[in-house]
Amino acid sequence: MKYFFLIFFLLISNHLLCQSIVTGNVIDNTGKPIEDANIIIMGKDAHIITYSASDDKGFFEIKFTAPLDSIVIKVSVVGYESKEKKVSGTSQFIKFMLAEHSTELPTVIVKEKAIAQDGDTTSYLVQTFTGKTDRVIGDVLAKLPGIEIDESSGQIKFNGKAISHYYIDGLDLLEDRYNIANRSIPADLVDKVQILENYQDIKLFDSLKTSREPALNIKLKNKARNHFIGKAKIGLGVAPLLLDDELTGLQFNKAFQLISAYKNNNAGGVLANELSQNITTQRVGDRSEQNGKEEIINKIVSSPLDISSKRYLFNNTHMAYFNLLKVLPNTAQLKFNGSYLNDNATSENLFQSNYNLLGGQQINFTEKNKGFINTNTLEGNLFYTINKKSFYLKNTAALKLDYTKEIGATENPALVIQNLKNPFYDHSNNLILHLPFRKKILSIDSKINYSSAPQILAVEPGQFVETFNQSIPYEKLIQNAS
């Protein structure tokens, strides 16, 4: 038994003789202790033996058992220079004084996904899909997977469903005339395009009713916010002088948005499409469809040609619009959308048909058509909306004045001239109110409308003489409707 204890004490003593303890402290130039400094003890070939860190008083203690003649102690911490000391491998106290030193961190590049899905929200990173020729956000939208834009109307669909709302940074500035945004907002000002599926815009209905139509939100970059942005385009051509000009003003703040523009084109561009109403589903507070213009009398026109209108349409169009939204202190929104369109369009075409009959007989039919349309429309809409979880209110006051004149001349071979005047006047006020009432919702809807559509069509010379004038030729046939 005594030999066992002898061997045990020999091993313990040998272990204690081989163990070294290095203590010390780490301070700065002013004598202030440095906390959380890394202390590393290394042997030959920079092999790490052990490590520790300084406490809140800058003190450290490291124990190691490696039988080394010499060691290297390295001290490092962010914001200070690093120091190394080569010392003996015995127990000792070492003091480190570090000077302040800026540390340059390596460059880190964070790449976002081109398309990201978060619940019912699909986000597209616009810069990933933007090409060199893409000038406005509408050019980029047409490239996004799942999104399609109708070339004629500009209507946007996601997975085959028309969008119900078009937001800019979460605010519905343009209602159903979002073509204005698509053709006005520069693509380089947009960070992301977000599709919100199953979106319910009325907060009161949020937990009660789910919409099946998707909504679209344009998320702007920081450089697009909090200052006025102006942009201009000047286009000149021949024959004899073609113009395609525009001047646009934009401003986007957290509680204020503005899109305004003046555009002029006489090179076959159809600017009126920019003012198209593109929401197909009837939404709460929308104007009734029956308030639209009804053309009771129509002049005869030729069939549309299966080529671009720029090839045969000669126009001179002036268009201006002003769209403003202000978020009031009570979170209500006051919004005005106004537009004016003056368009003079002239078209000319000729149709020729040749029929070869049995026996060599031929029938040739030729028809020439000339048309002129002068359009003058002025529209204004004023919206006041309160959208809270406690109640919903939307009032829409609208005014539309439309002074349109059309002249058509058809020769086949006799010449017939048609002169049509079909102005339209409309004034309306729509109010919708939703209130919670005894665990139910009370809805109040008020519509006030006045519209007038007097129309006159004059045809020269008088037609259908057998029916209208006892087979006696007469100068003019006039139709009146109102």
What is the rounded distance between the termini? 127 Å
The radius of gyration over CA amounts to 40 Å
Shape: elongated
Q: Poorly predicted ranges (pLDDT <50, ≥5 residues)?
A: 4-17
Mean pLDDT: 85
User: Tally of extended strands?
Assistant: 28
Number of contiguous helices = 5
SS-derived structural category? mainly beta
Percentage of residues in helical conformation: under 10%
Beta-strand content estimate = over 45%
Largest sheet: 13 strands, antiparallel
Explain this structure.
The chain has 482 residues and is mainly beta. It has five helices and 28 strands. The chain has helices at residues 2-18, 126-129, 137-141, 179-182, 465-468, and strands spanning 20-28, 38-42, 48-53, 59-64, 70-76, 83-88, 92-98, 115-118, 121-125, 147-149, 156-158, 161-162, 166-168, 190-196, 215-220, 228-233, 236-238, 241-252, 256-265, 313-327, 333-356, 362-387, 392-411, 415-421, 424-437, 440-452, 455-460, 477-481. Strands 16, 17, 18, 19, 20, 21, 22, 23, 24, 25, 26, 27 and 28 form a 13-stranded antiparallel sheet that branches. The protein has a five-stranded mixed sheet with strand order 8-9-14-15-13. Strands 3-2-5-6 form a four-stranded antiparallel sheet, with no helix packed on it.
